[in-house]
Fold each of these.
Amino acid sequence: MEIPAILFYFFAALAVISALAVVLNVRNTVAAALNLVVTMVSLAVIYVLMEAHLVAAIQIMVYGGAIVVLFLFVVMLLNLRTDTFPPGRQRLMKLVAVPLGLLVLAQLLRASGGLPEAPPVPQGFGGYRQLGIALFTDYVLLAEMASLLLTAAMVGALILAKRKID
Amino acid sequence: MPIEVLIKALFIFFVVVGAFAPVITWIERKQSAVMQDRIGANRADVAGITILGLMHPLADVLKLMTKEDVVPRGANRVIHILAPMVGALPALIAYAVIPFGGVYTFGDRTISLIAANPDWGLLYVFAIGSLATYGAVMAGWASNNNWSLIGGLRASAQMISYEVTMGLSVVGIFMVFGTLQLQDMVLAQDATFRVFGFLEVIFGIPIPWLDWLRLPAWGIFYQPLAFILFLTTVMAENKRPPFDMPEGESEIVAGYFLEYSGMRFGLFYMSEFIEIVVIAGLTTTLFLGGWTVPWLTQETIIGWIGAAFGVGFATGLCVLVHFGSFMLKVLLMIWLQMALRWTLPRFRYDQVMDLCWKAILPLSIANIFVTGLVLLLVRG
């Protein structure tokens, strides 16, 4: 087996195992958050193997780095000693979640059977140049709209936070 | 090819980082002693030989190795043990994309003295830097100590904030050099530019009698503001005084690593010093021309020496001169960081945040705008 294939299988397995650890770790929410970091970083490695370098860097910077904030939410908002969800609600959630998960799994298995052969990767694909050119020519309106949306969300968060302090 | 990469990785690990980090602890002690009019570390000796206190790093290692490794009661054992390693790893692997020498051709072999030269080099450093927060946050949480938790929370807030400005402060550098590959950036800096050349390009006033006045085409001369902003933010990322809020000895005892002892404490301590080397290497590469020799480009050296002693000898000489030049600049940046650490008084926590969001962020955005405007005028 070639080195990229070995790396792919290793990090794919790591991503799946740590993702399972996120959902199965109901007692220790901090450990669940840290497992999410492992999932995100393994996904970034897989992006590197797929030549999507910029996506990999952004994956680590935005998702990998931002889980610190999630971690802080867990530490500051949740009571770590006891299970905060009442048992009745948890049963209902399981009833909804398990069939939905099985449905998604079935869809994935069905789709992965008939995938077409991937076209060869063009030169410079996934680099910051190509992405920048695409983002600021063809999709400039969408990029600007997204940035406006984020600004609005930030201003809203600031107003909510300030009201409590003053 | 893999063997070449392995040799470079080992070289970086043992020479650039491994040998430097212990010596820096000595530099810090001696430099602070000189600055405070003391004698400084001079007691540790092997059979009476002290060599100016250079035996102290050895004594440190012995002390840390033989200390008991304590995990406090009620702490999360796994995360407590993992945290120092998670903290040290980003510092160790960030160095991979920093070039410590140029690109040399020996016959039909071309050697580039950099462990890995991906297309997204600088983004790699930032991505790795964003993971550096976890060591401090995990340590602070897992220690089951209120001071540690406060230290961990402070570390996360400070490092997330300064990550944003760290990225924005060097955007001007990408714009000037037009690349993210660090080796390409240094190659672009291996040149000179006319100090008053902008008068001719923008205003159309040629002044040929000042053409001899040239500066090396270094980042610091193109982007002086970015240099100051970047150095401030990376020093804040490293959590050393004057930005030592997460440790805050006078208020939260030792912050996130309060409950660590022995080699696990040593790992936090060493990762701080390794980060100093990484910061020095990165600032040298981005702003001080990396391995280049000012006013003396690689072609000039090979042209002069090569004519007399042959091109192969001249290229070999270039390797040594460039590596020496790089190490000299790295040492200069290390000295600067130490001098700042022992000169400036500490910030208060709210001042650290104000500096980031109210001073550095607007200034770096203004820097991007001005750089864009000037590039538009000069390059059309």
Amino acid sequence: MKYISHSLADTEKIAEELSAKLQPGSIITLSGKLGTGKTCFVQMIAKQFGVNGYINSPSYTILNQYQGRYTIYHLDFYRLDSLEQILEIGIDEIIYGQGITFIEWPELIEPILPKNCVKVYFRYLDETSREIIIKTAKDKNLS
Amino acid sequence: MINILGIETSCDDTSAAIVNHNFQILSNIISSQEIHNKYGGIVPEIASRQHIINIVPVVDNALKQAKIEPRKLSAVAVSTNPGLIGSLIVGVSFAKSFAYTLNIPLLAINHILGHVYANFLHNRKLETPFIALVASGGHTELVKFDDMHNFTILGRTRDDAAGEAFDKIGKLLNLPYPGGPEIDKLSKKGNRDFVKFPRALNIKEDYDFSYSGLKTSVITYLSKQTSDFIAQHLADICASAQAAIVDIMITKTIAVARKYKIKQICVAGGVAANSELRNLITKQANKFGINVSIPEPILCTDNGAMIAAAGIDKFKHREFSDLKLNAFSTKGIRIL
């Protein structure tokens, strides 16, 4: 599914729509260059799951964890450069657990991710507009 | 006579230091992990391996330089959170074994609180209350300290930390890692008013920070310029981005101090090494009769001395930890 968002309010609607389809164990990857809105999108979805308070960029900390209706894992592999490093942080316990997992900069881990994860792609159009493409396992079977 | 060994391994530096009860630094050994530059960032797995290699020689050096024998130590202080878990564990495991072997107390120190304590190493006569601005790669927090046990977080970043903003903007400008010091250096030759980047959340009585939008503004700005223009005006663009990061921190810190009628500001964390921040915050706060304490740059970056300094108060109050102590990565200063 391809969306064009012209504002934060537009993006919020897309986030809400996606939230309704997520359940414990869901994995969502977020791809796109710096400043395209990946962390912002995670903030919006986490809010839907009752996470209150601050959701910061995990670029520096690699993993932030929140408790809402489910446990929310927010991962960011911006600073990592091999799959071994990701495995070392105990990623398997997270992605095969009962939380909802968001992964920014997921390229390194894609080869080992379950087939049913949701992939979200962000593209910068102008200062306030973004192209957001959401692919689920079902979409892939069709294409 | 109190001598505290402080150990800090929360990120890319392995550091050990010895500080006495007068907040006097007897030694402060920091082994920066040069290996990280190659990767344009801190690679945690490598970080933990390097800490394992570094920790024994670094502690050994700290003891030798301070001319203190291990049995003369009063306690071992170690940063337990927040940070990269694999890195923290190395320091915590070492500290536990060292304290157990010597049969001396173990003190668990919050890394952010450690940064604030660097101000006591800088100024032994420092007194509470004060407002602390803690800005680093992973944190941007504005904290009111009524005394060293009672503090309130008044503002935090809602997205990126100030140091992260420096590093990511550095990356957008293809500068070497870490971006912060590079931007600082280039900005000295640039015009801070060249581009008017936005000051986010510039709202009265709102003490939170937001640096994500600034990143986007820089991207938008760069996308409209030719690469020749960017190369030619690199210093101006750096100075303008730095101004946007720094100005809002200064405005909010001074606003908080004035609101609570507090006459002392303490700056801490890696971003406190930024020369523009150091100059401007002092100048502007002084206009309102507010004093500013900023430790010398070596005490602003991650170091063992600040952990030992925080350990002195914990030692005096007998707030000891048992050997079940664990490292954890939870963010911020709240969990001590």
